[in-house]
Amino acid sequence: MARDMSDKEILKMELDQLKKEVSTPRTPLAANCALTVAFVEQMVPNDPLIKGVADDKNPYKGDKGGCIVT
Predict the structure, then answer these.
(1) Pairwise CA distance, residues 38 & 56, whole Å
(2) Residues 21-67: tens digit of each pLDDT
(3) Which residues contact 2 (CB under 8 A, 6 or more apart)?
(4) C-alpha 32, offset from chain centre
């Protein structure tokens, strides 16, 4: 696409993109990290990777025979 455009058109496109990026609301990294930590800590009680899955709700646990290698 850029091959078919003149240098002026490319510069105008870049300028338009920069104008969009300048108006993007920004927050400090520390604030984003604090929000992320709070979210993760809020979700800990429901996280199966941390708590594990109860045997009665685990579809992969039970008497399914398993695999025998001969």
Answers:
(1) 30
(2) 999 988 899 999 999 999 999 999 988 888 888 878 877 776 666 66
(3) 10
(4) 14
For residue 15, how many C-alpha atoms fall within 13 Å in the half-sphere facing its CB? Answer: 6
Classified as helix, coil or strand, 12 is: helix
pTM above 0.70, yes or no: no
24: Cβ contacts below 8 Å, ≥ 6 apart: none
Q: What tokens appear for 63 in the block?
A: 């008497």
- Amino acid identity of 37? V
The residue assigned the tokens 């078919």 is: 4
